[in-house]
């Protein structure tokens, strides 16, 4: 079965799984990629393994291993889990030839539609764990009066004087998420975060807001508007896609309503500019993020299955 036939069968199968998934055409090889295929009886799989590398000082380095081998897969037939298992066998053969054993800065990652559950057991048996999720919240067009106020909480655009507060909150967030494998703390993290946040302060169209609880700045939320989200917008069947970059609340203010107020404010801003869907990443194992975001109307769309090191 050729790759286009497999892609067509994959698309037909996923159309019954999740209406918010985008179209997924046949995989086209690119420079540095390796095409793989496998069959299991009357089921088939096509895959593309892509190697990417990031420097330890890059903006992306906290969110990934420095070297990542990512497998994109298309599965068709009555037993997609068997086809994926056969494809993973082929991929493991490839990884053993190119990845150093035991290197924790080399990861193998498979990004799958969250509701496409066949194959999950096969990934677990091969040492993969569901580490990260892209969650989606379709717009619900809140009333122009905005979300209800939270007593004691005031939300305002971040200003230049808020840089130290914002950096502290972002560092606290990264340190917490590092416990769950979705973040790697890097040397020079504070300097990199400072440089990144400095660009967002004082913008005419704000993308960063501070939450004050009875006058104390104890939370923040960062967003990307449609027009800035081409890097992730293709992950959802929507044209105007927003991205919620991060939401951080200082430890003393947790469970006070600050986080919910910040999320409601961000959603109001997204709705006002006509955003059709909002995406965000969160660590699946985080006992705070997972229930919080789903209480705000999100649900899993894509799941990152990761094995790190890629080869033991």
Automatic annotation (TrEMBL):
Annotated organism of origin: Amycolatopsis speibonae
Enzyme Commission designation: 2.3.-.-
Domain of life the protein comes from: Bacteria
N-acetyltransferase domain boundaries: 153-312
Keyword terms: Acyltransferase, Transferase
The keyword Transferase appears for this protein: yes
Molecular functions per Gene Ontology: acyltransferase activity
Entry protein name: GNAT family N-acetyltransferase
UniProt-listed CDD domains: NAT_SF
Keyword Acyltransferase: yes
């Amino acid at each position: 079965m050729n790759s286009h036939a497999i892609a067509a069968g994959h698309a037909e199968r996923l159309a019954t799984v999740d209406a918010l998934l985008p179209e997924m055409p046949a995989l086209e090889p690119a420079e540095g990629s390796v095409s793989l295929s496998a069959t299991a009886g009357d089921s088939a799989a096509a895959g593309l393994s892509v190697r990417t590398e990031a420097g330890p000082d890059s903006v992306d380095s906290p969110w990934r291993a420095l070297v990542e081998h990512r497998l994109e897969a298309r599965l068709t037939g009555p037993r997609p889990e068997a086809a994926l298992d056969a494809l993973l066998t082929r991929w493991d053969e490839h990884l053993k030839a190119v990845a150093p054993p035991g290197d924790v800065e080399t990861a193998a990652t498979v990004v799958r539609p969250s509701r496409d559950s066949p194959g999950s057991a096969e990934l677990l048996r091969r040492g993969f764990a569901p580490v990260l999720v892209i969650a989606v919240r379709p717009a619900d067009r809140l009333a122009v009066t905005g979300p209800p106020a939270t007593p004691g909480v005031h939300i305002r655009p971040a200003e230049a004087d808020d840089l130290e507060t914002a950096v502290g909150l972002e560092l606290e967030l990264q340190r917490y998420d590092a416990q769950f494998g979705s973040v790697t703390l890097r040397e020079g993290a504070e300097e990199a975060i400072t440089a990144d946040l400095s660009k967002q302060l004082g913008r005419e169209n704000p993308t960063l807001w501070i939450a004050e609880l009875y006058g104390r700045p104890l939370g923040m939320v960062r967003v990307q508007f449609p027009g800035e989200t081409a890097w992730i917008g293709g992950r959802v069947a929507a044209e105007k896609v927003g991205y919620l970059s991060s939401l951080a609340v200082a430890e003393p203010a947790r469970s006070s309503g600050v986080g919910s107020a910040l999320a409601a404010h961000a959603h109001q801003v997204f709705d006002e500019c006509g955003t059709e869907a909002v995406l965000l990443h969160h660590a699946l194992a985080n006992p705070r993020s997972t229930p919080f975001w789903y209480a705000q109307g999100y649900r899993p769309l894509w799941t990152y299955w990761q094995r790190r090191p890629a080869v033991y």
